[in-house]
Amino acid sequence: MASLAPRLLLRRRPLRSAAAALVTLCDSWAGLRGAGSPRDGALLEPVCGVSGRWMDGRRWWFHQPVRHGSTAVTLNTDGGFARFSVGGDAAAKEKLGRQPPGKAAKKKMSRKAKVNQLKWYRLKAKKKMKSPNPEVRIRYKLEKAKRKEEWLIEKLRKYEVPRSPEPVHDPEILTEEEKFYLKRTGEKKKNYVPVGRRGVFGGVVLNMHLHWKKHETVKVICKPCRPGQVHEYAEELTRLSKGTVIDIKPNNTIMFYRGKNYVQPKVMSPPDTLSKQKALEKYRYEQSLEHTSQFIEKLEKELEDYQKHVALFKNHGETSETISSKEYVDDLTTSSDTE
Questions:
Q1: Do residues 139 and 302 make contact, with C-beta atoms less than 8 angstroms apart?
Q2: Tens digit of pLDDT for each residue in 217-259?
Q3: Can you name the residues that pair with 84 across neighbouring β-strands?
Q4: Would you kindly state where each structural domain of the chain is located, as residue ranges?
Q5: 176-273 architecture in CATH?
Q6: What gap in Å lies between CA 146 and CA 155, rounded to an integer?
Q7: What letter would DSSP give residue 248?
């Protein structure tokens, strides 16, 4: 027994040194937090079952959240056990408070769920396109075309430029002799401004003012142009350039006169017009809308014809059944008479 005593003392020394190191570490951490240095072994009192007098006096310090970056860490020592909680109820309440009232949190779909949803839509559309019933196929195409038409109308609304209130333009009154003279001189000159598929935009009006620097008249050639669209172009260019229309020729050419008291404006391209790029985008959407509306009319006619055909075939089948039943009754009556 005497030989075992020194060995037991040697085994207890590392444990005591580890406990002392833990107490000094807790003292230094408490000193940094501003709570004062507790007595040796005070942190181990709740664990060992010792009176919680010191813990009651400093319980508020352990329940304060410790900020580490953007996350709140809370230490809870109720029941003699140390528990850490990250975030806690305060963080959850903050997240709920950020959401607008009356709106539930939108569930974010994963990439795989989105891909599966798209596959399901494509499979559904494929079944409708390859359906043996012609009415199902026509209705599917019609719904798709109508959705595209609504989308194109929404796109075209973005290119509508609000017109600013301008003073009413008072056109100059020209006599017949002056008009005849200006027509002859304008036809001999070679200066012209083209209006293409983009239609009337700021660049067309700018080119007209640049031509009016040296010439009194300018020709505006509209190609391509639908029937009656040349008059719309003439009204729009008259409003924007403040010129006077002298003549509109059958080959969609408009002759403009700058005016007797013409003064070149400081801003030759009006602000309430589209740019060259946006005018081209608008033309493409308009062209697509025109073709889509024609396709919708064609599908509606096909659907109507198919429904008429089905109704006619149904009526024809009913009449054939009635005729066959009448013939069967006549046969029965003739056979009974002969007997």
A1: no
A2: 999 999 988 888 999 999 999 989 989 999 999 999 999 999 8
A3: 75
A4: 132-161+283-313, 176-273
A5: 2-Layer Sandwich (3.30)
A6: 14
A7: E
